[in-house]
Amino acid sequence: MPIPMLRLAVLLLAGSIATGQALAQRIWVDAVHGSDSNDGLTLATAFKTLTKAMEGSDQPPNRHVNVRPGIYDGSNGESFPIEIGTYRRVFGSNGAIIDGGGASVAVRAAGSGFSPPQKLYDFEIRHAGLGLELTKASILTQGLHVHDCDIGVRGSYQTTLSGPTSLGISSSLIEDCRVGVETFGSTRFASGLLKIRNIQEDGLRMHWSGTTAGAGLAMSRVCIEDCGDAAVRVQLEAPDPLDLSVEACLLTDCGIGLVLDDPAGQGQFGGYVRRLTLASHRIGLTAAYSASSTLRLRGILLADNVLDVDAGTTALDIEDSLLEGGQYAGAPGVIQGDPSFVHAAGKDYALRAGSPAIDGIRSQPYYLSIPSFNQVDTSDGDLDARVGDDIGALEFATLRGSDVTASGAPYEVQVFGKPGTTAQLFTARTFPAVIGTYLRTPSGLQGLDPDTLRLLGTVTVPSGGAPGVLQIPISSDPALIGTSLFLQAALPSSASPTGMAWSNRLRALIQAP
């Protein structure tokens, strides 16, 4: 994962004490071929149920539970909730399904401590009151598909314990629930690459009453859509501070996009919310919190809402943002206008070329090393040879293509620019010597190794806003499998002092056909 996952790891492991431990014990589970009379130590002698695999001591060493495809439900012999104890790491697979069959809780992380966090990877969880419940433990989850539950995921801090619980969700989908994610007390929530959709009430509902240091809510590249109430609702329920670390999130098509509420007026919101798209809501943002809060709003895009902001007497610290309705027009860097979405009615909230949101953040770019939803690297969207962040969650890219391609098949790239102009497409063996860096040039940031740079071809941008398209043939040589194709375009631009500007760069992994 990009930097949000690094932040996620830091958040979840803060305060943990690293201890030397024995090698992990490996347990196998197979609903189709296993038996609970086996020892579970090999695939050939796998257990049949997760319930059996969770038995045993909650002391070190770690227990790695490897779960084969199959339906893990009552008819398979499961007892609900399936409890993940301390020192448990549970790794599912494509087709591993936990079906609660209407149970109040399908999976519960209920270990006896906070360190190290439990893990639950690659499962479909369905048909329960609570899909995943976090009580006394911290847990990292990845690759989950939680659906058809009353509440998809819930975390609640137990006040009798000595530290905070942390809930981390990445690369997952939660859908078709009454509430997507709900947390209480001091449960810290961190997420990246999470999608929540088709929710009756709130997508994320956070009731905060914690005093722990660090970000209580950290989200990056989270997409929440089609919620009956709020996409994200954060409420302070005690006179305690809550730091936010929210960036590059897309919240659309809900009753309210983002709710920040301190009913008693005694707590504090701190941290930042930046590069957030709030679109197609009844209200984009509602805020009611005390003047002592230090929350910074930067790069916020509010458009296609009945009302962009309802803040009452709350003084928002907002800069470098676009509010289509014209609110906060006097704030530094705040502009009014149509953001020029590709197709908002079709839920495509990417920016078109020429959008006023492109390179709309005046300060030092936040995104020099953080790709956006569509894996776009740093981009000079207005081709003025100066890289700046776009307002909103989705970075506009002049050069686009998939991040994978197959050997022996053509690789298609799209180039966006002024109609009629001809772009030059370059390739190289790698990025510059220091991986991830750029070379600063009068034409912008050049992101390919200069010693192996060569012209690959040209492509002309047609009229009507369509991109120029180039098909790049990929050899079927087996030696190319596992290597990468590195690309960057140079486009004519009157906005650049040299008459030419570099696009963003692409990297495509070549895979077997």
Automatic annotation (TrEMBL):
InterPro entries: DUF1565, Pectin_lyas_fold, Pectin_lyase_fold/virulence. Pfam families: DUF1565. Residues 1-24 form the signal peptide. Residues 32-116 form the DUF1565 domain. Keywords: Signal. This is DUF1565 domain-containing protein. It comes from Saltatorellus ferox.
